[in-house]
Design brief:
This protein is an all-alpha fold. It is built from 4 helices and no strands.
């Protein structure tokens, strides 16, 4: 493969901060060495962002495994033991919806005044 003698970089798509860095490196004739070192570190996987991305990816994988383990533990919980617990402590005098209560004598009055003047 034939190599190009030069590469052109479009500066209208980069931030001012990046442009100023490039301009300073170019003015000091350090841009070529700087870019080469960045690309070599990128190829070797030693850029700080890559190590951070790798750590985050590893943590994500570990969390996924923990969630899978938790889901398996939840599936293995015996639900019938919790149902027996709730039946054991039900009140004998518990009123069930729709039940007619006939054993109680209800006594009392309602004291209200009615204004029948329409």
């Amino acid at each position: 493969m034939k190599r190009k003698a030069t590469f052109a970089i479009r500066t209208d798509h980069m931030s001012d901060r990046v442009y100023n860095c490039f301009e300073t490196k170019s003015r000091n004739r350090e841009l070529k060495d700087y870019l080469i070192s960045l690309v070599e570190r990128d190829l070797n996987g030693t850029l700080p962002d890559q190590s951070l991305a790798g750590s985050i990816s590893e943590m994500k994988r570990e969390m996924h495994e923990h969630f899978k383990d938790l889901a398996k533990k939840i599936e293995n919980i015996n639900v019938s033991s919790s149902q027996n617990f709730s039946k054991e402590y039900q009140s004998e005098n518990e009123v069930i919806e729709g039940q007619v209560i006939t054993t109680e004598d209800i006594k009392g009055t309602i004291d209200e005044t009615y204004d029948l003047d329409f």
